[in-house]
Specification:
Layout: H1 7-24, H2 28-34, H3 39-48, H4 66-79, H5 81-101, H6 104-115, E1 121-124, E2 140-144, E3 147-158, E4 165-171, E5 181-186, E6 193-197, E7 209-220, E8 224-225, H7 231-267, E9 269-270, E10 273-274, H8 279-308, H9 313-338, H10 349-359, H11 366-378
Parallel strand pairs: 1-4
Antiparallel strand pairs: 2-3, 3-7, 4-5, 5-8, 6-7, 9-10
This protein binds flavin-adenine dinucleotide.
Flavin-adenine dinucleotide is lined by residues 89, 122-126, 131-132, 156-158, 204, 209, 358, 361-363, 365, 367-368, 371.
């Protein structure tokens, strides 16, 4: 077992950390306050390759393996979770789905534009009445000449309000259950497609989250992603990639909580001593360090399995479940260590706390991850 990162991985980590320190951390509070999408930052990430990290060079990306990609996402998560969420969905769910399931024409048409950051990808499974049980989706697609007619609605679509490409899942044959779900690529200017930004989120305020409405929306046949009936399989495989991304981002977020807490605990004095010298404060920091290190190794192991082409659903779920709960606890402790100052956006930890709360919900809640891990462990399926 080799615990060392390669020179290239160390260099890429340094590059993303530098970028985060220089271009994200100093300005992100203002984007959060204004709930404004950070197009200006995305425009700088494109030329560095950060919008196409796992996309092969032949399609304009960096061609990174999963482990190195996880390190990139970890560092983006260290800098900001809204931006990391945008990138995770864009790359893990968008680019990698098109790379794996798209036709050569689709790859050539979309991947270079996605990898450069010219357009952003979204991925929409969730509907007003459908969350954890995606198999019950109500959006339908019916054959229409050489294409399909889409009717229904989606919600909670990350980047939905600003994306240039949406991967949308719909029922094409309800009687076949999960084998009757199909994936489509939808371009936002398609007639019959409407989208509306959702407002009032607890956190992730500078990421876009939208509702989609499809009203007799005609999708050309060439925009089918994968085969008819393969949609559920595509969604589940893509979510394995997505969960790895979220888990990596959570490690970065937990690390940011540690870094902010250590700095504050060394500077802030009470009873004539830095609060970091009190054992109870050290205990909170040590818990954060221990859990974050453990989460990091779970993420790297899941990424390593992916790089080997080995099965990884269980390991991605374990990494996502553990790392998201760790990030949530770390943000909570970081606020406690900052006292009242942690309760205001003068310090970043209140944003960390709000942002971390989404990590245990999206792309399969903690409860759903437990059912997946339970199924692998017991051989008994709690979903049916
Ligand atoms: C900020 C944000 C961004 C998102 N981005 C996207 C996106 O880009 N694309 C997309 O498709 N969706 C997205 N989502 C939606 C997200 O994936 C869903 O919210 C999530 O899957 C849970 O679904 P739900 O909210 O409908 O909760 P429900 O499924 O209604 O669950 C409610 C509660 O019941 C629990 N529960 C459900 N079933 C079981 C069970 N069998 N056993 C035990 N407990 C159970 C859940 O864990 C949860 O605690 C996003 C959500 C948020 C908050």
């Amino acid at each position: 077992m080799d615990f060392d990162l390669s020179e290239e991985q160390v260099m890429i980590r340094r590059m993303v950390r530098d970028f985060g320190e220089r271009e994200i951390v100093p300005v992100i509070r203002e984007y959060d306050r204004a709930a404004r999408f950070p197009w200006e930052i995305i425009a700088k990430m494109g030329p560095l390759g950060l919008m196409g990290a796992p996309v092969p060079e032949a399609y304009g990306g960096m061609g990174l393996d999963y482990l190195t990609y996880a390190i990139v996402v970890e560092e983006l998560g260290w800098a900001d979770t809204s931006l990391r969420t945008t990138v995770s969905v864009h790359s893990s769910l968008g680019e990698l789905s098109i790379l794996r399931y798209g036709t050569e024409e689709q790859r050539q048409k979309y991947l270079p534009r996605l990898a450069s950051g010219e357009i952003i990808a979204s991925f929409s499974l969730t509907e007003p009445n459908v969350g954890s049980d995606a198999s019950g989706m109500q959006t339908i697609a019916e054959p229409d000449g050489d294409g399909w007619i889409l009717n229904g609605s989606k919600m909670w679509v990350t980047s939905g309000g600003i994306c240039g490409l949406a991967i949308v899942f719909a029922q094409t044959n309800r009687s076949l259950g999960t084998k009757g779900i199909t994936a489509f690529i939808v371009e936002p200017d398609t007639p019959g497609f409407r989208r509306e930004e959702m407002h009032g989120k607890l956190g992730l305020r500078s990421s876009s989250t939208a509702e989609f409405v499809f009203d007799d929306c005609h999708i050309p046949g060439e925009n089918l992603l994968g085969k008819v009936g393969d949609g559920f399989k595509i969604a589940m495989a893509s979510l394995d990639n997505g969960r790895l991304g979220i888990a990596a981002g959570c490690v970065g977020l937990a690390q940011a909580c540690i870094d902010a807490s250590v700095k504050y605990a060394r500077e802030r004095k009470q009873f004539d001593r830095p609060i970091g010298s009190f054992q109870l404060i050290q205990d909170m920091i040590v818990q954060m360090v221990m859990e974050t290190e453990a989460a990091r190794f779970l993420v790297y192991r899941a990424a390593h399995l992916k790089d080997k082409g080995a099965r990884n659903t269980r390991e991605c779920s374990i990494a996502k479940l553990y790392a998201s709960e760790v990030a949530k606890r770390a943000a909570d402790r970081a606020i406690q260590i900052h006292g009242s100052y942690g309760y205001s956006d003068e310090y970043p930890v209140e944003r960390f706390y709000r942002d971390a709360r989404a990590d245990t919900i999206y792309e399969g809640s903690s409860e759903i991850q437990k059912l997946i891990i339970g199924r692998h462990t017991l051989g008994l399926d709690a979903f049916v």
